[in-house]
Design brief:
The complex is a heterodimer.
Chain A (H helix, E strand, L loop, with lengths): L6 E5 L4 E8 L3 H9 L1 H7 L6 E7 L6 E8 L3 E13 L3 E8 L12 E11 L2 E10 H14 L6 H12 L1
Antiparallel strand pairs in A: 1-2, 2-8, 3-4, 4-5, 5-6, 6-7, 7-8
Helix pairs in contact in A: 1-2
Chain B lengths: L4 H4 L3 H12 L4 H5 L6 H13 L3 E6 L2 E6 L6 H31 L1
Antiparallel strand pairs in B: 1-2
Classes of the chains: A alpha+beta, B mainly alpha.
């Protein structure tokens, strides 16, 4: 059976990516697959990579620390720190690359994922709303360049335009 | 050291330079007029922007003009495409895992 379609949307206003995907399975199973290390290890690594959990503490303030094992390259460590959990309904984590001890270097880009789960007639829909630092920085750049930001920028811009006419 | 596009815009003067170059190509002297800083300081910022691949030099007569490489701005879109592909692969794998879970229960 081929998979259901993945809805994927970039919202430039709110700087978020929203994904929506349905799975032909009950909520209990889908929730378990997203929150239990032994199941996550079976699917989170996009083939040919695989995820290898080092530590999982699915509680608010706890984290999932795992390595993405990339063939021929090695391990890339990643951590998801759980910020909020509403059992069988939604959970939020901050995702950041880290070292094998789970330490995140300062200035590391991170993203916050809000993952929601709804079951209807045996089909469970998962919605991920992802707010990414990279998008934030892009937006800042566009704003700085074309809207506001750089202190004397607009005045200088006017002068420049006047002069180049 | 390899730099990325985000380092390019970490500094307010560099953001200003990017803003000016978005309008049209300029020489460092012309740019320095727009900032309360020396030509040398502007050149240093341009150097960083070049290392990020965001600006490119173009000789015009005896001077060098710098212009913005718009393709670099499309990096985010590329990142999005890759991310979408990774997630699609994961979800197909999750379909298989869920099917196995169901079979085990049956």
């Amino acid at each position: 059976m081929s998979g259901k379609p993945l809805h994927f949307e970039l919202d430039k206003e709110n700087l978020t990516v929203t994904m929506e995907r349905s799975f032909d399975a009950p909520l209990d199973d889908v929730w378990a697959a997203w929150t239990q290390a032994e199941i996550l290890d079976q699917w989170w690594g996009p083939s040919p990579c695989r995820a290898e959990t080092k530590e999982m503490n699915f509680t608010e303030g706890g984290r999932w620390l795992y390595a993405m094992v990339i063939p021929g390259v090695g391990k890339k460590w990643d951590s998801k720190t759980f910020l909020k959990i509403e059992p069988k309904s939604s959970f939020t984590y901050r995702s950041a690359f880290c070292d094998e001890n789970g330490d995140v270097a300062p200035e590391t880009k991170s993203s916050v994922w809000v993952n929601s789960f709804v079951e209807k007639n045996g089909v469970t829909t998962v919605t991920n709303v992802i707010r990414n630092d990279s998008l934030e920085r892009l937006e800042m750049m566009l704003k700085m360049g074309f809207k506001e930001g750089y202190t004397a920028g607009l005045n200088q811009l006017e002068e420049l335009l006047a002069r180049s006419r | 050291m390899r730099r990325d596009i985000f380092q390019a815009i970490a500094d307010p003067t560099r953001r200003g330079i990017v803003m000016l170059l978005a309008l049209h190509a300029m020489t460092p002297n012309a740019m320095a007029e727009h900032f309360e800083t020396s030509r040398q300081a502007v050149s240093k910022h341009i150097q960083i922007l070049m290392e990020c691949g965001l600006v490119e030099p173009k000789p015009v007569g005896r001077e060098i003009q710098y212009h913005l490489r718009a393709s670099k701005m499309r990096e985010i879109e590329k990142w999005m495409e890759e991310f979408k592909a990774v997630m699609a692969t994961r979800f197909t794998q999750l379909d298989d895992v869920l099917t196995q879970m169901k079979k085990r229960k049956a």
